[in-house]
Amino acid sequence: MPELPEVEHVVRALRGAITGRRIVTTELRLARIAPDASAAQFRRKLRGALIKNVSRRGKYILIELDNDRVLLTHLRMTGKFVSLTIDQILPSHAHVVFYLDDDRRLVFCDMRQFGRMIVVAKSKLATTRQLSELAPEPLSDDFSLEYLRAILARSHRSLKQLLLDQTKVLGLGNIYAAEALFLARISPFAVASKVSKQRALRLHEAIRKILSEAIEGGSTLRIDLQEETSSYIGTSERFWRVYEREGEPCVRCGTRIRRTVQGGRSTYFCSRCQRT
Ligand SMILES: [Zn+2]
Question: Using CA atoms, how far apart are residues 111 and 28, in angstroms rounded to an integer?
Answer without folding.
Answer: 15
